[in-house]
Amino acid sequence: MKVMIVVALALVAVAVALPVAPVAPVALVLEAESPKIIRSDYSQQPDGGYVFSYETENGISRNENGELKEALDEENKPHVVVIVRGSYSYTDKDGKVETINYIADENGFHPEGDSIPKVAAARR
Hints:
The chain has helices spanning 2-17, 26-33; strands at 37-44, 50-56, 61-72, 78-91, 97-105, 108-112. The protein is extended, with a radius of gyration of 24 Å. It is built from two helices and six strands.
């Protein structure tokens, strides 16, 4: 038992003695890397739906709309869900514009785009 305690304390001492790289404060990192927003629009619908979009100075853009839909839960009881459809674009490290289109509904989040691997159809 004493040997286990000595070993555990030795491991703690080694872990504490390891050098730690300095980390820049989060505020400095965000200020240095955040592009300016050059366009931003938002519209809330009376029924709870919405539409928004924005574009940044470095070419990032996003647009999305949400609409309410009645769906059935696990017990076949109706409830309201928000169906979200949208897309976002950015320029990758090689200079290629990547666009991701997505839908999020009662069945989950479903993105599509050239940079997203395609799942092979399951064999039965």
